[in-house]
Design a protein that fits this description.
The structure holds two protein chains of two kinds. Chain A is an alpha/beta fold. Chain A is globular. Chain B has a single domain, classed as MetI-like fold. In chain B, about 80% of the residues lie in helices and about 0% in strands. Chain B has a two-stranded antiparallel ribbon with strand order 1-2. In chain B, helix 3 packs across helix 8, helix 5 packs across helix 6 and helix 10 packs antiparallel against helix 11. The longest helix of chain B has about 40 residues. The two termini of chain B are about 40 Å apart. Classes of the chains: A alpha/beta, B mainly alpha. Bound molecules: adenosine-5'-triphosphate and magnesium ion. Magnesium ion (MG) binds next to helix 1 of chain A. Adenosine-5'-triphosphate binds next to helix 1 of chain A.
């Protein structure tokens, strides 16, 4: 069954910054068509764990990563933790939405087209087509279609967050890393974006961080609890489905 | 709050004092140059011949010399500085970065006269040998030394901006699959244009204002060069020479006029670059 085939496989991943160990021997599998959520107290290493997947930790000084990360592309397993693995390919396969909206101080349109043109080398028409599609996917098209030339920093926080999501979707990755993707969205937009994730999970494997237990219960197929840099529990749907028992479990871990 | 009030007053005073100082310099220059206008000596100063003992005090060749030398050095130093800054910030490994920045810092603190005399003993003979023409004291020689002199200034100022932009944009672009070179070209440099402009203005100020390099290396012949291997005299060197040789007081008119022209060149180039900058703004 296609559902069960893993997309991502992390083995004994340890990340440290300047000799301080942030993540300790993380083992994790992500299947295609599955939405896995990571929860845990602030500062426990959730963001660092996401960055370990696309090797973004290496962009920060003093970082040492050990262990093995593999992704499966067209029925082949690729070891992306080797030194000479092409990072650009990895990052195009593994799209990441940051915890804080990180639009570039260019126009709204350029924020979306620049990666398409530079990283994927698409031509202008194809890029434009994908821009509109991605903006429609995140329900932003109607809000910004008349102001695509404006600086992206003039958008509201929630709009910026959706723009960042659109920017990643436009690149058409295989795995999505979402770091609290609805943190600055209102109730209505959150609903829409959550519905989007439900539909995206048909096409992508999704690894997401959340601070909202209710969101976790609505979306997750599986939940990983992270504490002090270690995965301390893995919960299946049946374990967190029920509100009371979920609350009890979380009380225990936080 | 009393302390806040005082801080504001202090800052205000500092700003006023420096503006007033610049303004006073301009006033004094105008006051000194004014006799030229009233006595009609302006024509003799704004002419192409410097033959003081025949009563010709033209300083236009020096204006041309100053502009050629400083703009030439700026044109050579700017791309170099951009390259060095980008390499240091984005491409170099941590250790190399530290070493490069240390060298650049050190270079800014070397006195100009040292650049000057090292060039006299090293660069000048080389130029004489390579081009087999003239004395080796030429526009080109001075330009090379001056490029080296202003390079670290431009690098330091530009690198400060680059580092800020890099801090905010690096991870974003890396996550979007940019290669390092295309990140530099498509994101980092476009977002640091204003910093580059500030750096270039500062570099130009140093280049135009520098006296020793041109005095020691450019040959000081008050003429329009026909090639880069010809000798030139800059306005600054001219002022130094005339004042140092204690010539007749009539010579001094040309010194005052040179000072005023230097001042005006700086203002004009500043304005031009700023206009360029605002047209570049997103
Ligand atoms: N670039 C870095 N350099 C040094 N230390 C870092 C770096 N990035 C993260 N850390 C450290 O790693 C730990 C985990 O950080 P991380 O951002 O992964 O936490 P988090 O679980 O995402 O927290 P939050 O829920 O608040 O976002 C923190 O103690 C942080 O100080
Ligand atoms: Mg985080």
């Amino acid at each position: 069954m296609a559902f069960q085939e893993p997309f991502l496989d992390m083995r004994d991943v340890t990340v440290s910054f300047d000799t301080k160990t942030i993540l300790e021997r993380i083992n994790l599998r992500l299947n295609s068509g599955e939405l896995v959520m990571i929860v845990g107290p602030s500062g426990c290493g959730k963001t660092t764990l996401l960055r370990a997947v696309n090797r973004l930790n290496e962009e920060y000084p003093g970082c040492v990563t050990q262990g093995r990360v593999r992704i499966r592309i067209q029925d082949k397993w690729l070891d992306c933790s080797t030194r000479d693995f092409p990072l650009i390919d990895l990052r195009l396969r593994v799209g990441m939405v940051f915890q804080h909206p990180n639009v570039l101080p260019f126009s709204i349109r350029k924020n979306l087209t620049l990666p398409l043109r530079v990283s994927l080398g698409l031509d202008k028409d194809e890029a434009e087509r994908r821009v509109q599609q991605a903006l429609e996917d995140v329900w932003l098209w109607d809000e910004v279609k008349d102001r695509l030339r404006d600086n992206a920093l003039t958008l509201s926080g929630g709009q910026q967050q959706r723009l960042c999501l659109a920017r990643v979707l436009a690149l058409d990755p295989a795995i999505l890393l979402l770091d609290e993707p609805t943190a600055s969205l209102d109730f209505k937009a959150t609903q829409k974006i959550e519905a989007l994730f439900q539909s995206l999970k048909e096409r992508y494997a999704i690894l997401a961080v959340t601070h909202s237990l209710s969101q976790m219960r609505r979306l997750a197929d599986r939940v990983l609890v992270l504490r002090n840099g270690e995965l301390v529990a893995e919960l299946g749907r049946e374990e967190f489905e029920d509100q009371e028992s979920c609350r009890a479990i979380m009380e225990e871990y936080f | 709050m009393a302390s806040e009030k005082w801080i504001r007053r202090l800052l205000c005073a500092a700003a006023m004092v420096s503006t007033a100082a610049a303004f006073c310099i301009l006033l004094v220059l105008i006051h000194l140059v004014l006799p030229l206008f009233t006595s009609g000596g302006l024509g003799t100063v704004l002419s192409w011949q410097w033959l003081p003992f025949q009563g010709q005090f033209g300083i236009l060749p020096m204006v041309v010399g100053s502009l050629l030398l400083s703009l030439g050095a700026l044109v050579a130093a700017t791309p170099l500085a951009v390259g060095v800054s980008c390499f240091v910030q984005v491409l170099a490994p941590d250790k190399v970065r530290g070493a490069c920045l240390a060298v650049v810092h050190y270079m800014t603190s070397i006195p100009t006269v040292i650049y000057g005399f090292v060039s006299v003993f090293l660069l000048v003979p080389l130029m004489r040998q390579w081009f087999d023409r003239g004395t080796g004291f030429s526009l080109l020689t001075a330009m090379i030394a001056l490029t080296l002199l202003i390079l670290p200034t431009i690098v330091l100022v530009f690198h400060a901006t680059l580092r800020e932009v890099d801090r905010t944009a690096r991870a974003t672009c890396a996550a979007l699959g940019f290669s390092r070179p295309s990140y530099i070209r498509r994101v980092l440099l476009p977002l640091s244009r204003r910093g580059l402009l500030a750096a270039v203005i500062l570099g130009f100020g140093r280049a135009v204002g520098d006296t020793l390099i041109s005095l020691m290396l450019a040959g000081n012949a008050p003429m329009i060069p026909s090639s880069a291997l010809d000798s030139i005299r800059t306005l600054t060197a001219h002022i130094a020479l005339v004042v140092a040789t204690d010539s007749q007081s009539t010579f001094y008119h040309s010194v005052f006029a040179s000072g005023l022209i230097l001042f005006l060149i700086m203002i004009l180039i500043n304005l031009a670059l700023r206009r360029l900058g605002s047209s570049l703004a997103p």
